[in-house]
Hints:
- This protein is an alpha/beta fold.
- It has a single domain (2-227), classed as Nucleoside phosphorylase domain (Rossmann fold, 3-Layer(aba) Sandwich), CATH 3.40.50.1580.
- Helix content is 33%, strand content 31%.
- It is built from 7 helices and 10 strands.
Amino acid sequence: MKIGIIVAMQDELACVEDMLANKTVNVAESGSQYIIGDAGKHSIVLSQCGIGKVNAAVRTYELISLYAPDIIINTGVAGGIDTETRVMDMVVGREVVYHDVWCGEGNEYGQVQGLPDRFAADADLLNKVLTANAGKRVYGGLICSGDKFITDRNELNEIKSRFPDGMACDMESGAIAQVCHICHKPFISMRIISDTPGVDSHWEQYTDFWKAAPQQSFAILRNTIENL
């Protein structure tokens, strides 16, 4: 199977790249870099899209166009927005929604007009992620995406009021899910909780996460790939 993996940040890229063997780097005409390698029996195409919805959408479409992967996995970090989430947990997106989209009457909040109000994960991928990591704090839930790093308790409360079942908040999953929906490509987002917005020591919590060598959490991705 050929698997496309998209991350947003350099630290995330480094963690995933460590899993790959026989690596080569391809540079597209756009200047985008793609790391090609192997993970067990699978071929991997890994790329760092950059932060935010536009970067994520552009890179996802380009990856699909150039490499025709069988599936797309988005992984990286996210803020926990539910009392049940803890730092180093992994939330797997059963559904993904935009928390910053409103297209007016006749649409659900978070819905781009003409598209689903929420983007559902591929059911088979979701099952394999959750069964590959039994016994760990890995669980399915709603991921809320928007072009804002959530740090304020009032912002968090507003998102939770609109999406009470929201478990995590990031800046790319929604755009990647939308492109995969348009391109009929199986997709799943796996997000490690790096911080819980609204706490007094929020920024310290986020920076401490990266000091804690999150390879342990990214190893969940390796387990998933082995289960595919």
